[in-house]
Design goal:
The complex is a heterodimer of chains A (343) and B (256). With 343 residues, chain A is an alpha/beta fold. Chain A contains eleven helices and 14 strands. The chains are: A alpha/beta (343), B mainly alpha (256).
Chain lengths: 343, 256
């Protein structure tokens, strides 16, 4: 059974601390001050998120920490109760048909949540048993996954002594153990070395080729670009852009972004920058340690620098810093939010 | 209800228990056996306690052992697994209603508590003999009281395990378990509190009272004890209450 993912106007407000997996950085909306005991702080993690992910798609949720990515995964995997809105896996309503939904999904949480009382092989075998797989098939599949994730030589050791990367690999192997139709990967490559990351990407693509739907969250643009067929960029619990990585990159005016920093400059400078050939949009940018920052979106990068420099010198304005970024999802995020993904 | 999953969850707990068998054994029996030795043997032989105390003590020791085993077997893993590492997550994602996961913990805790209760009788008997007069008049009421006591301990473990933070484990033992044991009529019959009439009423909120008195009434009925009806009502009431509270707390911990 092929299964897609659908959410409609999902909203989640935490009145206690958010789940561990969802990082931090939510904006606290009301009731500041520790003495106010009547009202608990309300933390809006998701603010009306609607998504439609087709069966067999690799879909990415890209956003900074605290954007609501893990909460979305939490709701879709029955682990977080939505405040409003609905979510479906295939035809199944996630909240009202939890057991059937759990049959269809495999989940890799942001932090390894392995069963520390068991050995690596036992973790896979018991996971298979929970899903009713018979014992011969369980053993075969566990062996295959241990090989695939290069964990064979540590298979019979307790996982307590595993390195972070090994735990992460085992978590992913466990999620694949019952061959789920939909695989959720919350920041799958966090903490992996580049080599293991490539192995993981290969495994994800391979799994997708067998027709499975994959939802992954990341704040790594390279990963989103390399793996995802479509992406949603989310910030403050809202979907701010949706499309294929190429479409999204093309939606940034011009594509190139020149981040400039001047000394004191007169307002006319901005208008004059706007008139340069190839410049699509000029914005002031006073966040991120640049007091007199200006962002120039343009369809060319390097060649524009000399023109900007001569413009600045003719106006007797000091040009302190120039940074050119080529078309990227980072630029897109910056364009929509005025903030960098890394901030 | 998905039996395959339920049995797999049980098998997992059995595997972990088997792996920790020796520590589990020591943790369950060392303290009660020392208590039995000092109070039932040393104090009696030296004449500070009457010989009849041996028989009076045994059901109380059985009640304490069972309560401790059940609470420990359910609460400690839950506290650990719901912590930062969220080890329980893979079982919460197993294709079974999460209430059944809590029920599985209760079932396994009940089983452990039953085994410990039944093992403590011959062990204590060996340590105390001669002079222990066990007198099981109705095996059926003995079996039902034992089962209800085991269930109470496991349900108590569920309720505590889902309400207490890892940082408060010490507090749980000093504030909950210790008063429960001392005011649980385990070392003395409830009737011994007659000279403290207020205390005698207050301790009735302690489920261990019904456990100790119930086991006393079925194992050594020659001593004064609460009526069987009161014992059964008390135990069934506390079993239901603790299970209800435990399940509610479990859901609150499991789903954010």
């Amino acid at each position: 059974m092929l299964a897609g993912i659908r959410t409609s106007d999902l909203r989640k407000v935490y009145t206690s601390s958010p789940p561990l997996g969802s990082g931090g950085g939510f904006g606290i909306v009301s009731a500041r001050g520790k003495r106010n005991k009547q009202r608990k702080p309300e933390i809006v993690a998701l603010d009306g998120l609607s998504l439609e992910i087709s069966p067999g798609e690799i879909f990415g949720l890209l956003g900074p920490n605290g954007a609501g990515k893990s909460t979305t995964v939490g709701i879709l995997t029955t682990r977080v109760r939505p405040t409003n809105g609905q979510a479906w896996i295939g035809e199944l309503n996630v909240w009202t048909q939890q057991v059937a939904v759990k049959q269809l999904i495999g989940v890799v949480a942001q932090r390894p949540n392995l069963d520390f009382s068991l050995s690596a092989r036992e973790i896979l075998l018991f996971h298979g048993a929970y899903f009713g797989i018979d014992s011969r098939k369980r053993a075969e599949r566990a062996d295959a996954l241990l090989d695939r994730f290069k964990l064979r030589d540590r298979a019979d050791q307790m996982v307590r002594g595993f390195s972070g990367g090994m735990m992460q690999r085992l978590s992913i192997a466990r999620a694949m153990m019952h061959d789920p139709e939909v695989l959720f990967l919350d920041e799958p490559s966090a903490g992996l070395d580049p080599q293991t990351r490539l192995l993981l990407w290969e495994i994800i693509r391979e799994y997708n080729h067998s027709g499975k739907t994959i939802l992954l969250t990341t704040h790594n643009m390279e990963e989103a670009d390399a793996l995802c067929q479509r992406l949603a960029i989310i910030d403050h619990g809202r979907n701010i852009a949706l499309g294929s990585p190429e479409e999204l990159k093309a939606s940034v005016p011009g594509g190139f972004l020149l981040r400039l920093r001047f000394g004191q400059y007169p307002p006319e400078l901005l208008q004059r920058l706007q008139t340069l050939a190839g410049v699509r949009e000029v914005r002031t940018n006073n966040v991120a340690n640049s007091d007199n920052g200006v962002d120039v979106y343009a369809d060319r990068g390097g060649p524009l620098v000399s023109e900007i420099a001569s413009l600045a010198s003719s106006a007797s304005v000091e040009l302190c810093d120039v940074h050119i970024s080529e078309p990227s999802l980072e630029n897109l995020f910056l364009h929509h939010t005025g903030r960098s993904l890394r901030e | 209800m998905n039996w395959k999953t339920f049995l797999a969850l049980l098998a997992r707990d059995a595997r972990v228990a088997r792996r920790n068998f020796v520590p589990l054994l020591l943790q369950t029996f060392l303290q009660p056996m020392m208590f039995v030795f000092i109070f039932g043997r040393v104090m009696v032989s030296s004449g500070f306690m009457p010989p009849a105390y041996k028989s009076l003590l045994l059901p109380g020791i059985m009640a304490i052992t069972m309560a401790f085993t059940g609470v420990w077997a359910v609460a400690m893993p839950l506290i650990a697994e719901f912590q930062f590492t969220r080890e329980i997550e893979d079982r919460l994602l197993a294709p079974i209603n999460i209430s059944w996961l809590a029920m599985e913990k209760v079932f396994f805790g009940t089983l452990q508590s039953l085994i410990s209760g039944l093992a403590v009788i011959p062990a204590a008997w060996l340590l105390l003999r001669p002079g222990v007069e066990l007198n099981i008049r109705s095996p059926l009421s003995f079996a039902s009281v034992t089962l209800l006591v085991a269930l109470f301990s496991a349900c108590g473990g569920l309720a505590l395990g889902c309400s207490v933070d890892q940082t408060h484990i010490g507090l749980m033992f000093s504030m909950v378990m210790t008063p429960m044991i001392f005011f649980g009529c385990a070392y003395y019959p409830w009737s011994a509190l007659e000279t403290f009439p207020i205390l005698q009423r207050v301790v009735l909120v302690n489920p261990l009272v019904y456990a100790s008195e119930g086991l006393r009434g079925t194992l050594v009925p020659q001593f004064p004890h609460l009526s069987m009806v009161a014992v059964l009502i008390g135990l069934i009431f506390f079993d239901t209450l603790l299970l209800g509270v435990g399940l509610r707390q479990f859901h609150r911990k499991a789903v954010s």
